[in-house]
TrEMBL record:
The keyword Ribonucleoprotein does not apply. Residues 246-359 form the Acyl-CoA dehydrogenase/oxidase C-terminal domain. This is Acyl-CoA/acyl-ACP dehydrogenase. Residues 126-218 form the Acyl-CoA oxidase/dehydrogenase middle domain. Residues 27-99 form the Acyl-CoA dehydrogenase/oxidase N-terminal domain. Coiled coil: none annotated. It comes from Staphylococcus canis. Belongs to the acyl-CoA dehydrogenase family. It comes from the Bacteria. Its cofactor is FAD.
Length: 380
């Protein structure tokens, strides 16, 4: 069981127990899913069937009304069980929370989406492109649309579409020439003209199956143009904290494995276990301190967001991802040093934790942009 979880409510306790009850089953799939770059279908289906994917849907729409703090804690636990599952479902969890908190969509479409979530829908944004890189850097999408009567016709290719094989719905970013703006279009993934490429071949987060999304003359009714970039009230999106939450869980898993190894491994060159060696204890102390640093910044930021929900904690939101990633990478490195050469064995999970943690560097916000955002906010 994941250690050092600061349970704040019966709701969190209930769901932590449910997730822990699936730990062995999820972990049993992790290695083969990684090796075969296979999406964790069984894990995701359980999360849908159990009601987990409805947690961040507000109670007013029939969901559980989970807070950002709830999501961060539960996603951290799930990340300690299987990082690819946590990151995949995290995009859905965070996006559902964000959309209903912002409340910028037309009400009838928002109502329609809420019903879909209650029926097991899974959603993610499709915004990245090979030509533009991360959309957070401001590049204009090459994906384009043209209005044909009551329908928009969309053409383009989206990259890094996490959970592509499991998605039922997607929000696609595309450039609208007549408006000279970027629009976001809500659509089901079984719509005519939408295809999923089979081209995800990465070193880390292999089981997310983040294939390209190909749109060939996809026709979307104009009412499903749900957002225009730059329009609407300013919004500080704390739900993006689902990303560092998953990676905090991976770091925790690496720590737990190293601790168990240190307490049990006893080579015949020493008396007792390696956990009694000063050098190992130093690494354990460093590892624990880094985890404490990352955990408390992330969780305190989530708690503050619930009470403030404004620009006053934008620095904490940006810093949380950077701190979790840098401290988490160090934790995995220290764990591998404790375990030694055995940490590189493919039948041990540390090499998987290492590769998956590295992938997190390329999830938003990227480190340089986070520091720039923090600097600008500070200079104001």
């Amino acid at each position: 069981m994941m250690k050092s979880v600061l349970i704040q409510s019966d709701f969190q306790r209930e769901w932590i127990e449910k997730l822990e009850g699936k730990r062995k089953a999820f972990e049993d799939f992790a290695s083969s899913n990684d090796q075969n770059a296979r999406f964790p279908y069984e894990n995701i289906q359980w999360l849908v069937d159990s009601g987990y994917t409805q947690l961040t849907l507000p109670k007013a729409y029939g969901g559980q009304g989970a807070t950002i703090e709830d999501m961060v804690i539960l996603q951290s636990v799930l990340g300690s069980i299987d990082g690819a599952t946590a990151l995949s479902i995290g995009w859905h969890m965070g996006l559902v929370g964000e959309l209903f908190e912002k409340n910028n969509w037309p009400q009838d479409v928002l109502d329609e989406f809420a019903e879909a979530v209650k029926q097991g829908a899974l959603i993610n944004r499709a915004v990245s492109e090979a030509e533009t890189g991360s959309p957070t850097r401001g590049g204009r999408p090459s994906t384009n649309v043209k209005l044909d009567g009551e329908y928009y016709v969309i053409n383009g290719v989206k990259t890094f579409t996490s959970m592509s094989r499991g998605l039922t719905h997607v929000i696609v970013a595309a450039y609208i020439p007549e408006r000279e703006k970027v629009g976001f279009f809500y659509m089901p993934t079984d719509i005519e003209g939408l295809e999923i490429a089979d081209n995800w071949d990465m070193m880390g987060m292999r089981a997310t199956e983040s294939h390209d999304l190909i749109l060939n003359n996809v026709r979307v009714h104009q009412k499903y143009l749900v957002e225009i970039k730059g329009e609407g009230k300013p919004y500080q999106n704390g739900w993006i904290l689902h990303i560092p939450s998953a990676y905090l869980g991976i770091a925790q898993a690496a720590r737990d494995y190293a601790i168990d190894f240190a307490k049990s491994y006893s080579p015949n060159s020493i008396e007792g276990t390696i956990g009694e060696l000063p050098v190992v204890q130093q690494n354990i102390g460093k590892m624990e301190t880094k985890l404490l640093t990352a955990r408390h910044l992330l969780w305190s930021t989530a708690k503050a967001y619930q009470h403030l929900n404004d620009e006053s904690i934008s620095n904490e939101t940006s810093a949380s991802k950077v701190v979790v990633m840098n401290e988490g990478l160090d934790v995995v490195d220290l764990a591998m040093r404790i375990v030694g050469a055995k940490s590189l064995e493919m039948n041990r999970p540390l090499q998987l934790y290492y590769r998956d943690m590295r992938a997190g560097l390329h999830n938003p916000p990227m480190e340089d942009m986070a520091y720039t955002t923090i600097a600008r906010q500070t200079l104001q």
